[in-house]
Amino acid sequence: MSETNPAAAEVAAPHRYTAAVAAEIEARWQDVWDADGTYAAPNPKGDLAGDPGLVAKPKKYVMDMFPYPSGAGLHVGHPLGYIATDVFARFQRMTGHNVLHTLGFDAFGLPAEQHAVQTGEHPRVTTEAAINNMKSQLRRLGLGHDKRRSFATIDPEYYKWTQWIFVQIFNSWYDDKAKKARPISELVARFESGERAVPGGRSWDALSAAERADVLGEYRLAYASDAPVNWCPGLGTVLANEEVTADGRSERGNFPVFKAKLRQWNMRITAYADRLLDDLNELDWPEAIKLQQRNWIGRSEGARVDFPIDGEAITVFTTRQDTLFGATYMVLAPEHPLVEKFTPAAWPEGTHDVWTGGHATPAEAVAAYRAQAASKSDVERQAEAKDKTGVFTGAFATNPVNGEQIPVFIADYVLMGYGTGAIMAVPAHDTRDFAFARAFELPIRCVVEPSDGRGTDASTWDDAFVSYDAKIVNSHGEDVSLDGLGVTDAKARITEWLQRKGIGEGTVNFRLRDWLFSRQRYWGEPFPIVYDEDGIAHSLPESMLPLELPEVEDYSPRTFDPDDADTSPETPLSRNQDWVDVTLDLGDGRGPRPYRRETNTMPNWAGSCWYELRYLDPHNSEKLVDPEIEQYWMGPRAGQPHGGVDLYVGGAEHAVLHLLYARFWSKVLYDLGHISSPEPFHKLYNQGMIQAFVYRDSRGFPVPAAEIEERDGAFFHNGEQVKRELGKMGKSLKNAVTPEAICEEYGADTLRLYEMAMGPLDVSRPWDTRAVVGQYRLLQRLWRNVVDEATGEVTVVDAEPDETTLRALHKAIDGVRQDLEGLRFNTAIAKVTELNNHLTKAGAAVPRPVAESLVLLIAPLAPHIAEELWRKLGHTDSVVHQDFPVADPRYVVDETVTCVVQVKGKVKARLEVSPAISDDELEKVALADEKVVAALDGADIRKVIVRAPKLVNIVPA
User: What stretches in the chain show pLDDT beneath 50?
Assistant: First the structure.
């Protein structure tokens, strides 16, 4: 406060806007909004149907990314995006839209499960407590959510439909000809009729039930397979790549992590790779996010080539088929299924000692190297290590273009999860292959002519020569030659030759891998899958959904000796035999039969893949979503050919996984006719991060930021000087500021304004509690312009504003309107502040039309004080649904602008002229000005440069 005696000031101004007044106003209006259903968005039909007139308005669907309800609660960094979407949604309501804006909770997650393991308390208990706490914190901010539509992913009535979607995906396949998902029953019918050949050549009728299941498993969009995973015996669970450190250990507990093959559920997202790429072009997303998705999908054109070996073939995918004549060895991933098949009993005659790794037999060498590779993460294996490792398998393959026998190695820099898990090595033109060839004394043959003068004798090179714009050399065989061709032409010629010979073909490959969908945890959605006596997977019928989580005595997976790689997971669900082993009638005509349930659970990504759809029709127990309701809110329309949410706001850290998975689920549901929108989110906006200073002592440990003392530019904690750095805000860094603390001191509207005024929404910015008071004072000045602080009476007058005020008002209206539409909330606040300051400086009672417009301008940003002032101004209906002011163009354009007149480059006069003045008129006015005439002093004029209405430059002769 600016007063020297704040206590005396409060007595003199009993109706001043203070933190206490703000708290009372905010709590009261939040209760009214809840009771009146102020933010309820009506649907065109169903239990959320409402005013037909409101539904007839243009719609706007505004969403935040799903929050996870942490037990630690929110700090002031968390609500940044929530406040921004709330401001935008409020503005859209005031500009004539039916706005859907709500918030649910992504509530399955590892933190609650870890707490359950440590305490034995059910994760639902701590999760629901965290949700209630977060709801309370968010409510205090005055967020205008339609609370009827809120839910949590742990609600059985929600995850019933998550399970239902899984069943749809399981019972679907991707028809490459139709370029869409189709029911698996259609594929079965084609096999039965002979329209489609059964793999292997047998008839469908001749296959056993298990054989049919295996065939269909190669087509289903959700399928179980033996997949390479990160197995951590010390934790007793499989880990995602992100949970493994660069040195191949678990992020939690620092246990060794091994590569293992386990039966896992997968989603065939790779079938949609082209569509996921192509449809990005029609989305209004940041280009950086689109680029990340394109890189993650990683489309590359090349060729599939078969290298014959012992009557079979090793298949590779290469984008440089033009260099086939330079392939002098092959490398397989250690996990490649053909390794054991082609590994001989003894080393071939003449095997180099450096190839064997010192082992007596190929089998010993392969086993030892596989064990070594299994202890490394994919990230570590792909790192550019100085020393290349590998071992000869003892086998030779045939280079198909020249008939050469080339050795086959295994090495950890080749991953089974990428391409075919095998590469042809062209060491002269690939840096990693070059290093490997040097380490293992393998031939290096130049087939792309260097342009840097090094010559074509690769044995003299220090590194590989890599070029996509050079001539091919040393590349000719009996019936094909690439010599003298450029790369593009050489690729085309060798691809045609491979196809003619039946040993390869042009093809497209993707970096994208199928989505590993299993977790060996308790706290997740159970799979709606059971297995019969033959091990065949069956989906549960809709009548048996939701399949709810059973009670278990122990929430932790079984752990093992951390170094024992020869173990496998035992999940918490597998210990409840009464739940696992069941007798069911699946309605397939076979009657009651014994089954075994799937004991893995879905990953926490599952619930967030489709939540935008459930917000539309949250209480529908008969359908995922009513088609008419989905079409109304998300269907394709002008400018949005793929439909989707109108505005989706969240952090850039979800650029790939969540967004890619949600897009995949939407496309499957679209293909199957359940929704009209093949894309979930039309416009994506990434908000920045609120950062905070972290203070570290001499040990590097964070100390409480609230206890820091600043002296002469240095920082001290308990007398000890500490270092300051800018970083994230969080409990562990001891620099978190809670929303409650700011609301207690200033009020929620002040917090909202400060977070929006800190800078552009998409830029990270540092938190400064001391700067919050600036927005508090703005609200106090706004209050004083409407309310007498001594009496509490409204002071506005029923009079027309003067022209200066009209111009200030309409310029503010025009600017704020454009800024709110463009999510430029910081500049919108600056324009409101400028108008408010103009009224304060005027010193007279504010005309009612100006006061009401000012309240409407600030209403989306500071809704509580706006609602209170709106009612004090005599209105009985909520400010939330009032029309946003519209600027009068007459007052937006300046009446005059200042024109600078220069003579010999120096300013000699400033003229007030019309903004619409022409160049000729401005030149006449400038030359007639007495100051300009004096400056010319009779000199002839060589040139006059006019830039109406702001500049005249006169050049004397």
Answer: 1-4, 6-7
